[in-house]
Amino acid sequence: MRPGRRSTRAPWWAALRTSAFHRNCRQLTHHPFWWRGGIDVWQVDRGSPLTVDRSEQQTHMASRRTFASVDDYIRGADPKAREILQAIRQAATAAVPQAQECISYQMPALRHKKVFFYFAAFKTHIGVYPPVQDPALAAELEQYRGPKGNLKFPLDAPIPVALIARVAKSLAKQYAAATK
Q1: Which of 11, 14, 64, 96 is such that its CA lies 20 to 30 A from the CA of 116?
Q2: What is the dihedral of CA 77, 82, 86, 92, to 10 degrees?
Q3: Domain shared by 168 and 86, yes or no
Q4: Statement: the pTM of the whole predicted model exceeds 0.70
């Protein structure tokens, strides 16, 4: 072949790209596992093309509950957790009276210029977020800390509502100092 001219023949490695192995590798790289719908790449059938069922995604996304207010969230919670959530709500709003209630990340929250206190009900515990930086409260909260510092209060044990109110007050001070 003369220099400067392109060949009409395919290169020697073109056949490799059309093999079954390469086709499946290409499919896996073009359909990453972090797409909505969560493709499990370990369960891919290597003989068939990789497909994503979009109808499942839409029904899943449509069935996700959204809450317009804290009252809606508490009404939709498990009956065991409703009273506890209501007690936490009252204690936190009493501890930080200038804060407004809101829903953020589909959890009840308190806001004063910025969201500073979240609480949520789960199957086995009540979660309080974000982690508290106050060293005075650290010793008292140690038994409730999760691996990332967030607080988990088991539903089957007495909930220390007064301690949670102190956490809300501490977080309000912490975030007020950070926004100045």
Answers
A1: 64
A2: -60
A3: yes
A4: no
44-85 pLDDT tens trace: 444 544 454 555 555 444 557 899 999 999 999 999 999 999
With beta carbons less than 8 A apart as the criterion, state whether 99 and 64 touch: no
Domain membership flag for residue 153: yes
94 inside domain: yes
Nearest by Cα to 158 from 79, 87, 93: 87
β-strand partners of 118:
109, 129
Coil/strand/helix, residue 15: helix
List strands edge to edge, sheet with 100-104.
100-104, 107-111, 115-121, 125-129, 151-154
**Pair (26, 89) in one structural domain:** no
What is the tally of structural domains in the chain?
2
Q: What integer pLDDT is reported at residue 178 of this predicted model?
A: 83
- Quote the mean pLDDT of the chain: 80
**Judgement on whether residues 43 and 79 belong to the same structural domain of the protein:** no
Domain hosting 140: range is 70-179
- 171 & 131 share domain: yes
Taking alpha carbons only, the member of 131, 171, 134 closest to residue 152 is 131
